[in-house]
Amino acid sequence: MIASVNIEMWQAWKDEGDLEAKKRLIEQYLPLVDYVTNRMAIGLPKNVSRDDLASNGVMGLIDAIEKFDYSRGLQFETYASWRIRGAIIDGLRQGDWVPRSIREKAKRVEEAYQKLEQQYLRSVTDAEISKYLEISEKEFTTMLHEIAITTVCSLEDPIREEETETRMSLLVDERVKNPDHKVHEFFLKESLVSGIEKLTEKERTVVSLFYYDELSLSEIAEVMSLSPSRISQLHSKAILRLRGALAKHKDQLTQH
Q1: Which position among 18, 59, 82, 117 has the lowest Cβ density within 10 Å, counted as fewest Cβ atoms?
Q2: Hey, how many other C-beta atoms are within 10 angstroms of the C-beta on 162?
Q3: Cβ atoms of 197 and 182 closer than 8 Å
Q4: Does pLDDT of 162 surpass 70?
Q5: Among 38, 66, 94, where does a domain finish?
Q6: 223 and 137 belong to one structural domain
Q7: Which PROSITE patterns match (predicted)?
């Protein structure tokens, strides 16, 4: 629920078009931009400017304030966080921040997880993936470090290229959904459930702490008593497994 102290500002902005109220709302929620920016900056290349991420995030915040319907009684912070995150991801996509060679490596690993886990109907080991890719386990570990940057925003990718609806957004409770969205949601959740079941215990923990409890990777490292690089590896493997699980439903998602 929106704090009662903010209701007057929302009413002034939405009902009366008071630009000063809008400005105060932007200033009040700017810390959200810093929070989301700091989380998303983890694992990105050093040449990606945090200031650029924050600038895109501010645009997302303004977009959220312009589109938010306070009368529905929903929590603005949750809605704004998705908008801020989306704006940052759009900026990253436009900057083509991941080299083609890294994207290709990520695709190879994703396809390996998809094929082997469909074949064995269980979570496959690093050794099995390495053997399939015809590389050593040490080389596979190095590859995971390299492709970690491609997994930071993976669940924020659009289900269909021409749309803004994301895989992760369908896990957020919304009050109104048309039948078409229900079909998307059914296939997506079935895929995610199947994929999550195949994750190792540590991978499930990382995904839960990162996406649901919204801890940073460094905070998760402290909680799990592991190094940040190890947490990054677990996150990358979890996301690649989930993308592999989602891939088999891609045709179903795009046909409806």
Answers
A1: 18
A2: 5
A3: no
A4: no
A5: 94
A6: yes
A7: SIGMA70_2
Q: Are residues 72 and 167 in the same domain?
A: no
Predicted TM-score (pTM) of the model is 0.61
Which residue range(s) make up the domain with 219? 100-255
Q: Let me know whether 175 and 199 are in one domain.
A: yes
Banded pLDDT at 19 (limits 50, 70, 90): very high
Exposure string of 15-26, with b = 16+ CB inside 10 Å and e = fewer, is: eeeeeebbeebb
In the chain, which residue ranges form alpha helices assigned H by DSSP? Answer: 4-16, 19-41, 50-67, 76-94, 100-120, 126-133, 137-151, 179-197, 201-207, 217-224, 228-247, 250-255
Which residue's entry shows tokens 């704090």?
3
The Cα 238–Cα 23 span in angstroms is 40
Query: Any idea what DSSP says for residue 140?
Result: H
Q: What is the CATH number of the domain that holds 83?
A: 1.10.1740.10
Q: Could you read off the pLDDT of 34-78 as tens digits, one per residue?
A: 988 887 776 666 667 888 889 999 999 999 999 998 888 778 998
